[in-house]
Amino acid sequence: MAEQKYIHLRVRRQESPQAKPYWEEFKIPYKPNMNVISALMEIQKNPVNAQGEKTTPVVWECNCLEEVCGACTMLINGVPRQACSALIDQLQQPVELRPLTKFPLIRDLMVDRSIMFENLKKVKAWIPIDGTYDLGPGPKLAAKTQEWAYELSRCMTCGCCMEACPQVNSKSKFIGPAAISQVRLFNTHPTGEMNKEERLEAIMGDGGITDCGNSQNCVRVCPKQIPLTTSIADMNKETVKYAIKRWLRK
């Protein structure tokens, strides 16, 4: 009979934002093709640590389980990524799991990413419509524009870019690369362009594009390979043009 293989997890735990963090280790029976989420679900079914002691189930967040919602983002062996697409067979053991550090902790591996959604509100990252009646067919975009705009639309506000950015910290108001990239996306849309100047004003303000330190970490960790640095460069150009235009109006 073949010897039972085990997965070794090392999880940074914290019962509340005010509680003292600690490490807890788990040994999970190995199954082929497991991801980190399935390993955490095994702990949930039988919350016993590596020392054989009863413990509480590890708290984490997930939703789609197919790298679309971004909810299960955490630090896996020190790298910000989604637990649903992190396959155990491709990870070095012990697999170390930690919560993201740039967002308020809720408990264990679960954090509050509300700041990302608040930043999207700041830059008006939506297409406004006038009422609820049928507006007819929407405006057409050139195929070439559709191609790169689609890349930007794949952003799932997972927080990887914020986690990797050295400019995002407790002393900075920087809105982060994701929100800036969404300004580029919605300013390109023929209907969204009507609010172009409002969005440019938003990223020219406190915590806006001038706070970017150009470390380019964001584009390296983005799970959707969104060209974030290209968006930031383009918005730099657009804000300079808008600033000159605004000055000439005076």
TrEMBL record:
It is an enzyme of class 1 (oxidoreductase). Residues 146-177 form the 4Fe-4S ferredoxin-type domain. InterPro entries: 2Fe-2S_ferredoxin-like_sf, 4Fe4S_Fe-S-bd, 4Fe4S_Fe_S_CS, Beta-grasp_dom_sf, Helical_ferredxn, SDH/FRD_Iron-Sulfur, Succ_DH/fum_Rdtase_Fe-S, Succ_DH/fum_Rdtase_N. It comes from the Bacteria. Signal peptide: none annotated. GO terms for biological process: respiratory electron transport chain; tricarboxylic acid cycle. Its EC number is 1.3.5.1. Keywords: 2Fe-2S, 3Fe-4S, 4Fe-4S, Iron, Iron-sulfur, Metal-binding, Oxidoreductase, Tricarboxylic acid cycle. SUPFAM superfamilies: 2Fe-2S ferredoxin-like (SSF54292), alpha-helical ferredoxin (SSF46548). Belongs to the succinate dehydrogenase/fumarate reductase iron-sulfur protein family. Transmembrane segments: none annotated. This is succinate dehydrogenase. Its cofactor is [2Fe-2S] cluster; [4Fe-4S] cluster; [3Fe-4S] cluster. One of its GO terms (molecular function) is 4 iron, 4 sulfur cluster binding.
